[in-house]
Amino acid sequence: MKNTRLRRLLTAPSMIVLSAVALTMALAASVACGGGETIVVQTVEVPVEVPGQTVVQTVVVEKEVQVAGETVVQTVVVEKEVQVAGETVVQTVVVEKEVQVAGETVVQTVVVEKEVQVAGETVVQTVVVEKEVEKEVVKEVVKEVEVVVIPTPEPVRVDSPHITADPEVNSWPTIYDDSGNLLPIPDSFQEAPLLAARVAAGELPPVEERLPENPLVLKPTDGIGKYGGTWYRGFTGPADGQNMERPLKDHLLFYEVSGAVVQPNIAESWTQNEDATEFTFTLRKGHKWSDGAPFTTADIMFWVNHMLHNEELNPAKPAWTQKGGETLTFEAIDEQTFKVTSPEPYAPFVTLVASVIVAGQHTRGDGGDGLYAPRHYLEQFHPDFVGLEEAERKASEAGFDNWYTYFLDRNHANANPDAPMLTAWRVTGSINTNEWSFERNPYYYAVDTEGNQLPYIDHVVLTLAQNLEVLNLSALAGNYTVMGRHINIAKLPLFLENAESVGYRIQFWRQPQSGIANIYVNETWDGNEEIQGYIQNVEFRRALSMGIERDQINEVFFLGIGQTSGLCQGYPDPDNPGKYIGEDDIQFNPDAANAILDEIGLSAKDGDGFRLMPSGERLTVQLPSVVAAFEDYPAINEMIARQWQVNIGVHAEVQSLERGLHGDRGLLNELMTTNWESSPRSTTLITPQHLLPVGGGGNTGRLYGDWHQSGGENGIDPAGINDLIKQQMVLYDESQSTAGPERYNEILQRVVELNCLNVNPITTVMNKPTYVAIIKNNVRNIPNALPFSYHNQTSGNAFPEQWWIDDENAMMGQ
Amino acid sequence: MLAFFIRRVIYAVIAMWAVSVIAFVIINLPAGDFVTTYIATQLATGNLVLEDEAESLRDFYGLNDPVYVQYSKWITRILQGNLGFSFEFNAPVRTVLEMNLTNTLLLGAFTVVFIWVVAIPIGIYSAVKQYSPGDYIATFFGFLGLGVPDFLIGLVMLWLILDTTGFLATGLYSHEFRNAPWSFGKAWDLAKHMILPVAILGTAGTAALIRVMRANLLDELKKPYVTTARAKGLTEWQLIMKYPVRYALNPVISMTAYILPFIISGSVILSFVLDLPTIGRDFLRALTAQDIYLSGAVILFSGWLTIIGTFVSDLLLAWVDPRIRLEED
Fold first, then answer.
1. Strand, coil or helix: B108
2. Which is nearest to A442 in space by CA: A268, A227, A246, A206?
3. Could you give the CA distance from residue A170 to residue A166 in angstroms, rounded to a whole number?
4. In B, which residues are within 8 Å of A239 by CB distance?
5. How many independent structural domains does chain B possess?
6. Are residues B177 and B230 in the same domain?
7. Taking residues A229-242, what's their average pLDDT?
8. Is A257:A173 a contact under the CB 8 Å cutoff?
9. What percent of chain A has pLDDT over 70?
């Protein structure tokens, strides 16, 4: 008995143009087995039948024959790419055959898996054939494979007049004038007619008394708005609190629109000392809760002393309050000023306070977190003030098991309309009901440049739609005023179709400079010394980058709505000084790429047109691809490998790996490259492990990452090998300890620029919209283009308090 | 009769205990727990949840206790009238269930009345005029209603109405009445919104009842006493209504057992599709979110209501038809 392991690889090097939707194809291949191990490469011509015409297709057959053991396992992989008049159909045919030799009878199983990718959809088709074959060791296999090519649907038109995304010039709201100073406080203040009526009825004090002494002055996106109207939205249930926490942004400090620069919000100012151990925050004098009670440092200290340090409310302290194994110290200096002291330098602290990580009572209050809490309201539920017995009695009367779950419920502003708030709108209908509703906060601390108290819109009403299909249908029917969350990007064609008749426009809210499918080159991969020399060479990586046709990837895999810019260019962001870095490297430029490759010793080619290294060995770039992850990485890599072969003669090998295996092999430094996403630029220092080899990451150099993580005990110091990566490490360390806010922001820019200079990762398609926002045509002042981020709580970074609805019911301020 | 009653009570109590165990096992069957699902939901909407945050959530909700400890805590509290705490709503389960109780009872009651009012006359007609064109039409629509799942009819109707009128026929109230106190306007608004779900839910139930009614009545109509009565000169109407229909209604009474749980769980999927604010919809959400005490309470009460319904229908049948009581003794 002879036992043979066969492996054949068929690839179609030339594109064939087909006009038919179905064709039948015969694959003929002969299998030869001998003793020992043989590798045969041969060329076979396969006729392809197309109704009305015949196309001859050249197929390269690679066969690998191995003999070992007692079972004959034979695998045939056929990979083909078919171009159909203007559209690309990628088609993978895997034929796996297992041949068992027992006596004289051979049982053979043939599994044919076909994957046909049609812009946006995948059709997988499996054919299993079992047959009994009588044979010796040498055999002939002829298999007929039926290939069905599904017609490609009409591609999504991104130049639709209903899409208003991605303009060349940004129009954003701001709190600063042209010279960078805070806008001047207007001389007089006006209010919404809804509130003016209540003032006239004696239910509310006049607007001057409700505003703090120095309100936040906001210059609207396009112009001063009119009061009135209701903002309709949908929500999916009690777990969807972020739905309104995002637009209400209850943070003490907040970011400007791009999410890069921290600016005042509830607090009017802040300072920090040289070594980032002391932070002082100043609240607004005369600032009031939505019920009219004063908001002072007593509300901060109530949270610190009676919530943060309470073992039942906070059994595990929030991570942001911990530094150097200790809890930060909070101290009130006067009614408006408080100081936070850290035992160790804690440079990111201010950015954390501005971000959703710390946030405030509305976002975090139900978890006992949130930095401040309405002391005057919550005292009546806290045992420190009313005694344990009374607190427990109130809780059990309300149906709660203990005082602390009841206390947290009372501080859960979304569910408790009685809880005072600081946000632009206050809750009037609980999130636990079928209609979650808000009304304007008469004590909101912000005004526009003419002194009109914000917000412009009177009410926010969210309708419960637990079923996302119902929510999307509601948006389609025009039931929502502004809705980005939960809108299904795959329904974009449907939304476009109805835009005109229903009367809404569509904006893409993207994460700036976020990669979807970057190719990270592991510069410390040491599987082959000669190849390692090349992957460590920035010029080699530049040539690979210039050999990629990014538009094709965008069209085939991302409906054409991604962007093909690089990490540094990704967004028309005026605060991005390094936006020209690496600009040329992301252009498709095969001539320049080939010139580089010829120059660095890769000018020789083998019979298949693939470049050879000076040793005469073919240079193969491995593209390990995680299956079933966020994107179809194996298919994307197949396309890239194909583009490199055709454009620059570089051979690439795609290996599909299960996610866990991919991770394990990555940690063992066995992956030459990794195909993965990267977080947006603004969070690079918060989640650094994608782009930087720090904090457990190591995509651009596994052993560099190990070196940083172990403090120099394991791995390799990049100093002298790649000084760009070394610089990233030094900058990252500084950002986490002593860097002041300006320096922190500078580092944030610089570390990503280093990625661009280093051409690692090689980016493909970027900035896929996170939200597809459906906006009624009469809604004004929504910034364009709005960058999406989590830490900056999009749509909060669009300052919804200055949005307004332009219809006959909108009223001018008085 | 008393012995019969006591025996039934004992059986019911044992069955209710068994149902509570099964309910608790069912809600703990899915892999992971509320926190796992919570994290997945947060990730899907672009939010991050840190690992230690997840652990402290588990401690907070008592999800790190062994299952039997969780069960005994749960059942003890329920016997004291405390249905537990809903993780997702961050509120007592009782509050959550009370929120949509009225809607659920109204929808269920209307549906049951719809089924009876439509199905019993049609059933009688089909049996009396067996193989007539009317019987065939009723049979055809009956089987169609049985065969097509209600959520599918719901989706098709939803799309048809949206496409023709631009109106999205979801929910039970218009926006202005949703959180408003009861008034004539609100009741009228509810009645308008009720038509579509009641008609859809009713269609399936109607089909079953028509067939039961028809089959029973056909059996009765062949019996000699009918011939005798007819020979004695009773009018056809008096004859049918007085005896055969009364006997044929027996199975309708035993169906009472299923009406009570049907009111809660009959509309689960349709409520989800049409976004009706009912306990059924909250139940489905609680199941997917692994909000175990909320879903547990609904499963438990559906089970208990079935047992109570069976108990009541047994008593009713025994009262209506002495033969049943005698057979039991």
1. helix
2. A206
3. 9
4. 38, 41, 88, 289
5. 2
6. yes
7. 91
8. yes
9. 77
Cα A424 to Cα A458: distance, rounded to the nearest angstrom: 10
Q: Which of A433, A476, A770 sits opposite B179 (nearest CB)?
A: A433
Q: Using CA atoms, how far apart are residues B104 and B258, in angstroms rounded to an integer?
A: 15
Four-residue CA torsion sign, B151, B152, B156, B162? positive
Rg of chain A on CA atoms, in Å: 31
B71 lies in the same domain as B114: no
CA distance A396 to A409: 13
Q: Nearest Cα to B104, choosing from B327, B324, B295, B277?
A: B277
Q: Quick one: closest CA in B to A316, which residue?
A: B56
Q: How confident is the model at residue A285 (pLDDT cuts 50, 70, 90)?
A: very high
- The predicted pLDDT at position A36 comes to 39
| φ, ψ at A77 (rounded to 5°) | -115, 125
For the purposes of burial, counting CB atoms within 10 Å of the CB of A469, is it exposed (0-12), middle (13-18) or buried (19 or more)? Answer: middle
Closest-CA residue of A relative to B289 is A239
Do B186 and B293 lie in one domain? The reply is yes
To the nearest whole number, what is the mean pLDDT of chain B? 82
Whether residue B197 is contained in a domain is answered as yes
**Buried b or exposed e, range A127-154, using 16+ CB within 10 angstroms:** eeeeeeeeeebebebebeeebebeebee
Determine the average pLDDT of the residues in A491-506.
Answer: 89
Q: Which of A356, A477, A485 sits opposite B162 (nearest CB)?
A: A477
Q: What is the pTM assigned to this prediction?
A: 0.73
Residue type, A811: M
Handedness of CA B241, B246, B251, B254 (dihedral sign): positive
Domain span including residue B72: 34-82
**Does B187 fall in a domain?**
yes
Candidates B166, B178, B281; nearest CB to A466: B281
- Whether residue B9 is contained in a domain is answered as no
CA-to-CA distance for A304 and A317, rounded, in angstroms? 11
pLDDT in tens, A499-527: 988 899 999 888 878 888 899 999 999 99
Task: State the distance between the two ends of chain A, measured CA to CA, in whole angstroms.
Answer: 98
Q: Tokens 């095969």 belong to which residue?
A: A590
Last residue of a domain, one of B49, B82, B115: B82
- In angstroms, the separation between the Cα of residue B74 and the nearest Cα of chain A is 12
Task: Identify whether residues B212 and B122 lie together within a single domain.
Answer: yes
Q: What is the CATH number of the domain that holds B232?
A: 1.10.3720.10
How is residue B314 written in tokens? Answer: 């047994």
**Contact present, A784 and A236 (Cβ < 8 Å):** no
Tokens of B102: 């009225």
Strand A278-283 and strand A322-323: pairing?
unpaired
Complex ipTM value = 0.77
